TrEMBL record:
Cellular component GO terms, alphabetical: cytosol
UniProt KW keywords: Glycosidase, Hydrolase
Molecular function via GO: purine nucleosidase activity
InterPro entries assigned to the protein according to its UniProt record, in alphabetical order: Inosine/uridine_hydrolase_dom (IPR001910), IUNH (IPR023186), Ribo_hydro-like (IPR036452)
Residue stretches making up the Inosine/uridine-preferring nucleoside hydrolase domain: 8-346
One of the protein's GO biological processes: purine nucleoside catabolic process
Protein name stated in the entry: Inosine/uridine-preferring nucleoside hydrolase domain-containing protein
Length: 366
């Protein structure tokens, strides 16, 4: 019988929310996770790679999902200090329940591994999901340009629209409301490598294939107290670990951004958006004008002028995603304005149940 699951490659920088993205990609029955590549971002590459291996160990997937190390810095910029005020020194601070890796990274580097796995899928079936700095993704399409026409789609977590694009609370720093989370204008993943992000959005072969999950969307999906209580209900070691990660994330978001309801779950939405693009999987995204129901697509450009220091000091808008709505019928980037939040958490809960069952069968994380 033919495998009808959606082939997905996950490029990530674990990361508290990446743990949930990996869990969703591993245990959603409609997804076939081809592999994971790691990139610098929430922590340095020498930290994000073992983080990915540890998460897979916690999910009893370490021996079935390979991890391939990727880029350790931006395409053309000096190293950027990771956001330790959000994710801690390790990128996954806040729990002692994360197990040590039981496997090692693949000796095959990220870019050739990604290309081989994705090109081995039938045309227009596979998705690339990128939830960290977009360096690996940009290098992939630069070195294997035919992939842009081969893939069904690319789902990116990054950027911020602002200007009331959604009713999400984006937070404030020092009393100043902002669209971005790393600067007033820029979201971290895009600012980390703005040239890489801009290269993706300017790739004509990807026009109409990119789904962008900006802060405006991810801040609608919060790990509230009710969500945390629901996850903890099963009482397994995995559930306790996930809640501890959410609690740490909640604390940093409250302290840094003044968001008290709970932390936004950015990265798993980029995985869930693949299901939404396929019209199934239990999570609905609304890529339309919510007032009229009219389908929307956008042109996205990234401000690349200026240094990291300029951006942090407010002298430039480096890393800002500049979004322009296209005319009716034009193809462009899909940026949903809403998501079925209840459906998302229901699906996430089902995936946690499957992970618990797999762990129990393996005698792991009980």
């Amino acid at each position: 019988m033919a495998d009808t699951r959606i082939p997905v490659w996950l490029d990530c920088d674990p990361g508290h929310d990446d743990a949930f993205a990996i869990l969703l990609a591993c245990y959603h029955p409609r997804i076939r996770l081809l592999g994971i590549s790691t990139v610098w971002g929430n922590a340095s590459l020498d930290q994000t790679t073992p983080n990915a291996l540890s998460i897979l160990t916690a999910l009893s997937k370490a021996h079935s999902i390979p991890v391939h190390p990727g880029a350790s810095h931006a395409l053309s910029r000096p190293p950027m200090h990771p956001p330790t005020d959000i994710h801690g020194a390790t990128g996954l601070d806040g729990t002692d329940l994360l197990p040590a890796p039981v496997t090692t990274p693949s000796p095959i580097p990220a870019i050739p591994a990604m290309a081989a796995a994705l090109l081995a899928t039938p045309p227009n079936t596979a998705y690339l999901v990128a939830t960290g700095a977009f360096t690996n993704a940009a290098l992939l399409f630069a070195s294997h340009p035919s992939l842009a026409s081969h893939l069904a789609g690319v789902s990116l977590m990054g950027g911020a629209v602002g200007s009331g694009f959604t009713p999400a609370v984006l937070g404030a720093v020092d009393g100043v409301p902002r669209a971005g989370n790393w600067t007033q204008w820029a979201e971290f993943n895009v600012l980390a490598d703005p040239e890489a992000a801009d290269a993706l959005f300017r790739n004509e072969a990807l026009r109409g294939k990119i789904t962008l999950v900006p802060l405006d969307l991810s801040h609608l999906v919060l790990g509230t107290e009710g969500v945390r209580i629901g996850i903890l209900g099963g009482g397994t070691r995995l559930r306790r670990m996930l809640v501890e990660l959410l609690m740490f994330f909640a604390g940093t978001y409250k302290e840094v951004f003044g968001i008290e309801e709970g932390p936004p779950l950015h990265d798993p939405l980029a995985v869930a958006a693949v299901l939404g693009a396929e019209g199934e999987g239990g999570v609905e995204f609304w890529d339309c004008d919510l007032a009229t129901g009219e389908r929307e697509r956008f042109e996205v450009r990234v401000v690349t002028e200026g240094t990291y220091e300029d951006a942090k000091a407010g002298r430039t808008r480096t890393g800002q995603t500049v979004v322009r709505k296209l005319g009716k019928g034009e193809e462009g980037v899909r940026i949903p304005r809403g998501v079925d939040v209840e459906g998302f958490w229901r699906v996430m809960g089902e995936c946690i149940e499957r992970a618990d069952e797999a762990n129990e069968e393996a005698g792991n994380m009980v």
